[in-house]
Known about the structure:
By secondary structure, the chain is an alpha/beta fold. It has helices at residues 16-28, 46-55, 66-70, 89-97, 139-149, 166-171, 174-182, 193-201, 222-227, 255-264, 283-295, 299-315; strands spanning 4-11, 34-41, 59-63, 103-107, 111-113, 130-134, 157-165, 206-208, 215-216, 238-240.
Amino acid sequence: MNNRINIAYCTDSNYIEHVGVSITSIMLNNMHNNIHFHVFLYDVSPKDQQKLQKISPLINIYIIPFEELAKYKDHKSNKITHINRSMYIRLSVPKLLYGKIDKFIYLDADTLCFSDISPILNINIDSVICAVTPDSLDKQNMLKNKERLELASESYFNSGFLYININNWMGFDTESKANKILLSAKKERLIYPDQDVLNIVLQNQVLYIDPNWNYLFTWMDDKQKETFFYNKKSLPYIIHFTGPRKMWYTENEGLAQNLYTYYKHFTPWANSPLKSYQNKMRPVDYRVFSAQFFRKGSILKGVKFYVAYLIKKLVHK
Length: 317
């Protein structure tokens, strides 16, 4: 059991396929490691549950009861539109796994693994609640979050990767402390609700580790986004594709989408087509996609998206 790595995901029907792809990327890069998966589901059809189970017998499925999330129904975040209530499940996971395992990695669905993750077993989290990675490599960005949330700590972590010590999490009463803030009248300052609240509650209770455990795709420039996979020495353990413009949308062409499609090929969702992002797009998304198409020499697509950007911008004025 000492060499067993436990990994947990939380998802609803919107992200179940992507959890399957993320799990598959871990399995294919860790064929000789003892990895068990714990997937917490909310509002997922029996058919999709069966698909996920087909990936591996080492996937344990847990159904989250409606009342577990009902308490968050009134929460609204004005700035983040691609996040839903399933993100709050992560606060309950340590409680639900308590007594079964001692430690686990929590991962967001928009992650892909590119390496052997057994070195996580060498990271000692006995004296902390969890090991985390920074949300930014820019010190000024970290300070902005410190000021916004009035943190004592000078660091601010990304909650898409958490290596959690369950006993310490429970002993600190982390979930209750987080919920007290999330359900309070002063929650308006929380731009990234669960991430912000965990940073507030877990100040000075975490261990910062190598960002390669949760390397944010937005840290890369355009050239790196198309070449990162080919340099094995600098390839992160896990890349986190943050933001609303995910690699699984048809418009987001490039290396990341190709890699996602490759891992998807080994899942029960292999034949399901990539979906369009167009019905969710904001003016800024049209502008970003336009610039991407121009850089790749797709002039007609670039013009099409730029014209759409101008129209959307005028409508939103």
